[in-house]
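ok posting inputs for the adenosine monophosphate job
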Amino acid sequence: MSEASQFWDGARRELAELPGGHGLNIAHVAVDQHVLQGNGQRIAIRWIGSGGSRSDISYQDLSWSASRFANALKALGIGAGDRVFSLLGRVPELHIAALGTWKLRAVFCPLFSAFGPEPVKARMSIAKPVVIVTTSRLFVRKIQPILADLPFLKHVILTDGGAGGLDFNALLAAASPSFEIEPTSPEELAILHFTSGTTGRPKGAMHVHAAAIAHRATAIHALDLKPEDIYWCTADPGWVTGTSYGIIAPLAVGCTLILDEEEFDAERWYSTLEKHRVNVWYTAPTAIRMLIRAGDELPKRFNLSALRFIASVGEPLHPEAVVWGQQVLGRPIHDNWWQTETGGIMIANTADMKIKPGSMGLALPGIEAAIVRRKDDAVEVIAENDAEGELALRPGWPSMFRGYLNEDERYKKCFAGGWYLTGDMATKDTDGYFWFVGRADDVIKSAGHLIGPFEVESALLAHPAVAEAAAIGVPDPVAGEVVKAYVSLRPGHAADEALMKELMAHARKKLGPAVAPRQIAISEDLPRTRSGKIMRRLLKARELGLPEGDTSTLEGAT
Ligand code: AMP
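and the output
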């Protein structure tokens, strides 16, 4: 047996099976096992609501609420394999809905609440959920306008009980708090997370109940998380980090998680760390850059002595930020790397190792990572240190995605020669540390959120004045990158201020603020290949004044 499979076997044995040896279910691992072990009174979630309200939810209460939600879904005729979506902010109803869905062996898919109607529609049309849990405000703004395109959607459940849907709280109140989870195979589909590629529709990465094995083990190894900890993951549960490490991992470990409904505010964040005596804090480079901007004096006003470990993920963490953490917060910031498809952390700077600022760290136990070069259908592992290539992983860890929903070809393309190819370019040094170089494709990372250029372009093309559109990421001092779109206009439309404003408003309305371009420019001469495809890479090089690289396929090239 290989070292990696031995590691995962061990991690699996540490997780509680369903009573009677009936398999593995995320909800059991995350809540019910703690209740059975006599820890039901421990606080599972400390929710800080907007306006400063606060409520503590024990593991016992969370287990009961999740059971009530599972019973409520069952009464609506929903069962194993059905898809349940959420479109919610950082509220405990999201955790209850997720856990209740897993209890029922249905499939949970959280959507980001800052998505506009188009990204919501695209994702729902692929996964065809029967239920969505949301608020009346989000329902009116983002679901109602597209409802006619969602014939598969049978129920809308509103957490605030408004018009147009079922009342979440009333459903829970009417349901029994006892629910016996049916035998669950660890390989059953449990979670769908949408991610974006360069072209085509968003991809629904499929994750199974066994993923919880990796969520828990990697939280222990990479985040130094312990059951007695107060833990704060600042990611939104609409994205993979917010689910793997904002719901499942901390609950599976048995600690108390902080859930903060409000948006970023430097002073409030430091005060949250102090007031709740946060021990482990998992955040992202954009937030760290905003804290750095807020100045070094501000954190001195707070007692951060409880803080033991800080980690960051989602985008490159520049070396200065690691050093800033040490100097100003008294703790270095530990960068780690993973992606939607990997389901959990793969490469990390852990508590017990020397940090090399600017590096993503070492492959975790149970993970084999390498730098490779694609060669047709095979790959060649690059033996030479510090040479650039694509980051590749040997498949086999439990939170590895099991496919893209209904997209076998796209899934197959991710593998070659026994490796999973991540789409990230990186290097590896003589000590085995990995260093991020950039993406191999054209996806855009803005404030840690992966944005598919195709989705942005499609929304712009829906405007009658737009003939062609291309979206790229341009550097931004805070968000890392922001979306910039180039459009060419149809005859009869003038590129005046009124039209530019209209295009911006159109894009925001369709895509939502998280995905919409921050800048739109007119270009009547978009670089394209001879086959007519717009060359975003070249557009980006021109925008940034970088070398244009290989332009042999460029239209007009000789
Ligand atoms: P997502 O699937 O949305 O979580 O995005 C995953 C992508 O984010 C990766 O493939 C990388 O391109 C980027 N990413 C994640 N973590 C890091 C990191 N620590 N350093 C650099 N890029 C990262």
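notes: The domain at 442-544 is CATH 3.30.300.30 (GMP Synthetase; Chain A, domain 3). The pocket of adenosine monophosphate is lined by residues 195, 240, 313-316, 335-337, 339-340, 360, 422-424, 436, 439, 445, 450 (CB under 6 Å).
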